[in-house]
């Protein structure tokens, strides 16, 4: 189907007038080319096209935000793990010190028990009783 071209000779008008006339011609062309139902679908496609561009920008921003959050979480986790390892090493060193002190005290207690036995034997032999 051939359509007659819309040729309109417009006098020189201001830019706003030209834009208004072009917009009016586009609207008229849409009405001639598209029936009412398809016009609604075209309007919906135009409105969702902009939303899709906004969604694409939003998705990129969300990915960047997720990536930055993920990196910060990893850094904080690494710092916490390092601190826990430091505490474990310090605790082990303190436990080793306490264990060595307990061993030395145990030796001292054993020596005191031996001395106590010797004193009790001496007292029993000398005849002094409790």
UniProtKB/TrEMBL annotation:
| Chain segments annotated as transmembrane | 65-89
Q: The organism sits in which domain of life?
A: Eukaryota
Q: In its keyword annotation, does this UniProt entry include Transmembrane helix?
A: yes
Q: Does the keyword Cytoplasm apply?
A: no
Locate the region Disordered: 36-55
Short name of one Pfam family: DUF4577
Q: Which key words tag this protein in UniProt? A: Membrane, Transmembrane, Transmembrane helix
InterPro entries, A to Z: DUF4577
Q: Mind telling me what this protein is named?
A: LSME1 protein
In which organism is this protein found?
Answer: Pitta sordida (Hooded pitta)
Recite the lineage of the species. Answer: Eukaryota, Metazoa, Chordata, Craniata, Vertebrata
Q: Which gene encodes it?
A: Lsmem1
